[in-house]
Amino acid sequence: MIPYGRQQIDDDDIAAVVDVLKSDWLTTGPKVSEFERAVAEFVGAEHAVAVNSGTAALHAMMAALNIGRDDEVIVPTLTFAATANSVVYQGGTPVFADVDPETLLICPDSVERLITSRTRAIVAVDYAGQPCDYTRLKQIADRHQLTLLSDGCHALGASWHDCRVGSIARMTSFSFHPVKPVTTGEGGMVTTNDAELATRMRVFRNHGIVTDARQREEQGTWFYQMQSLGFNYRISDVQCALGIRQMQKLPGWIDRRNQIADRYDRYLGAVADLTLLKRNCGHRHGFHLYVVRVAGGRRNQVFQTLRENGVGVNVHYVPVHLHPFYQERFGTRAGICPEAEAAFDEILSLPVHPGLTTEQQDTVIQQLTQALAGRHSRAA
After folding, report:
1. Which residues in the chain land under pLDDT 50?
2. Gap between the Cα atoms of 63 and 23, Å rounded
3. Which ranges of 205-337 does DSSP label H, i.e. alpha helix?
4. Please, what sign has the CA dihedral across residues 181, 61, 89, 327?
């Protein structure tokens, strides 16, 4: 099976992890802050706070803003459920915006229509690795005195004009799951230029305690205080050692993802019943995903055929407002985000990762073209 995404691990990565396993610090040690500095410097942010998942990063952002029961946060519905879940964790209400049908990025017009007196923040999701329309979103946020946040979990290494994702919004979350641009196994990060928000998130990831074990060791004290309710969202030095090595390879991997995407564009751009997503000019796409739209109500059939023929396609995502939890808890229903719902019936994620060979990509292209033409053949 050719997977839609896959981690890239080499001997240097393994050696870095082994070195930490032989060291004195397996968690809350020096590799955590080193990894944070590497990510902050790469994206051009002043601060980075490492946590144990992309979901924890999203939750930390909401907690740092003190999102609560009377607050609404606007999120696009075409995203992984964690984007909205992080608002619910804080007792807030996620409000679902529709997407642009050509890019599947959050639609600024939809966002503006949803703003109420309870709205506190807007979350821009850089779907598939393409930066959102931050110009419009910033204008809307400033006009209504809202906080603009970014779910950049697909977009580490992507750029909006000359700014890398991670330095644009007030806070940006990243994920280091194995299919993401770089991996720590599981892990996440929030970048920001706001020192106070960074401090809040560091306390939040450590049970609400203002010092961690390494800080107390350096100060020669045992005393600690829990000043707020937090979580154990810490990431280990073992994971961060892997992340540090992975960050060094990220620029080359983003280049490779774009090469693969360009080749898909050339070979699939004129295929009947297939629509490619629009790329916005002047931006650097991260291509965490390469998503196409299959017309004619045939997506599920094409999905099944490709899987049977060794191509590990996937679907990203079920619109969050259609999940039973949100329908039961918040009364969401089909019809409130028509563009996202129409896209959901058609979208298909093709394999795209740095380890994908030209021969494997040829197989994907051949099998997809044959499936769309109704000619099914088992891949060799």
Report:
1. 377-380
2. 33
3. 213-219, 237-268, 299-308, 324-330
4. negative
Residue found by looking up tokens 């560091």 in the block: 202
Asked whether the beta carbons of 59 and 89 are under 8 A apart, the reply is: yes
* CA separation for the pair 153, 256 (Å, rounded): 18
Q: What residue ranges define each of the domains in the chain, with the CATH number in brackets?
A: 2-246 (3.40.640.10), 250-373 (3.90.1150.10)
Using an 8 Å Cβ cutoff, are 341 and 322 in contact? yes
pLDDT tens profile 70-85: 999 999 999 999 999 9
Q: Which pLDDT tens digit goes with each residue over 187-239? A: 999 999 999 999 999 999 999 998 787 787 788 888 888 989 999 999 999 99
- The Cα–Cα gap between 19 and 13 comes to 10
CA quadruple 225, 227, 233, 236: dihedral positive or negative? negative
pLDDT of residue 15: 98
Which residues, listed in sequence order, are joined to residue 147 by a DSSP beta bridge?
Answer: 121
C-alpha dist (Å) from residue 242 to 164, 174, 346: 22, 16, 36
- Backbone φ and ψ of 329, nearest 5°: -80, -40
| Catalytic residue set | 180
pTM over 0.85? The answer is: yes
CA 86 to chain centre: 13
